[in-house]
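Hey, I was hoping to borrow your eyes for a little while. No rush at all, and the record is pasted right below:
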Amino acid sequence: MNFVEELKWRGMIHTMMPGTEELLEKEMVTAYVGIDPTADSLHIGHLCGIMMLRHFQRCGHKPLALVGGATGMIGDPSGKSQERNLLNEETLRHNVACIKAQLSRFLDFESDAENKAELVNNYDWMKDFTFLDFAREIGKHITVNYMMAKDSVQKRLNGEARDGLSFTEFTYQLLQGYDFLYLNQNKNCKLQMGGSDQWGNITTGTELIRRTTGGEAFALTCPLITKADGGKFGKTESGNVWLSREYTSPYKFYQFWLNVSDADAERYIKIFTSLPKEEIDGLIAEHQVDPGQRILQKRLAKEVTIMVHSEEDYNAAVEASGILFGKATKDALLKLDEATLLDVFNGVPQFEVSKDEIMAGIKAVDLFTEKAAIFPSKGEMRKLAQGGGVSLNKEKLSAFDQEITSADLLDDKYLLVQKGKKNYFLIIAK
């Protein structure tokens, strides 16, 4: 596979330095993408860069994932309006270990292949580099005029930030440039890739290599992913969509992809999956015949959920979706863990009742009218229950005054009440 051609049809190239394609056709190339370890999980904003490395390895080249253990202690001004919080060494070490585990789902770190992936941490080569040595050996090669001309610096200086630009952040591009120089000298790394907002930092690295060693160095960036409506990709009302299940459950992760627009699904399935062009073209054509079937969204959600989590998590997410939108059974409901249960029924009306009353046994009609205001009157509840329109935990009530006990509680805490076909209520026993 030709790496540049692969990225082109996927819409994953924003800017590429002349000579990059020729280099990749000539030899097995080592390239890196930098990842800021400011959290102990990646989020889907990182996925485009990670997929670039994944395609790079599939095309026979060697990927390096660089975690910025040193630069993470400083903060990159690119695309930011404020200086970020600085992290201590212990936190960074924890974050790096977690990120390596997540990257292992995308890249081959373990095989004996010549192009197996490597994780590198710039803290390893920066920790013993003194300020005076850095100023003398690196700083003298790049002028302040050159650094000032970068977009990331100009935006911060021209009023986009309340507090201007600190010297710490100003030096970031030099530090990132030194990473490229170090990897060029020690890992024969000739290409740096990243998001389009990193172009200034990346080209500082190519310039530093050219001025210090005269070595070959190239740059390639992918577009910053946005939504079709111009909104920020990967942000929801509750914040980032994370790759860690501790921050974003597999169900919510699956739902994010399932709910993207048709226009976004057509772009995202090229960027965030490894499906071949012929198959994606077929899926797009099939989707256009009947958009209501949401064929693209379903396949996109499946591929990305399996890649990030597992097939088991994907199947569980599909089954959980069926509970709210389909004809799922009580067995499916019982399989949900508490976090997924709460995610599935996030936003439905909730009522808290005393657990002691349920432990003692209580009639459904009393619970659903007096303790939880699901029905305005006992008469209305009786009438709907007699017509088979009231369900408890996905099973129709046998009688309006059916006794409810602790044996009915899900996770020893919840009761799911369904009124008609679409109205759900969650009772929480405390």
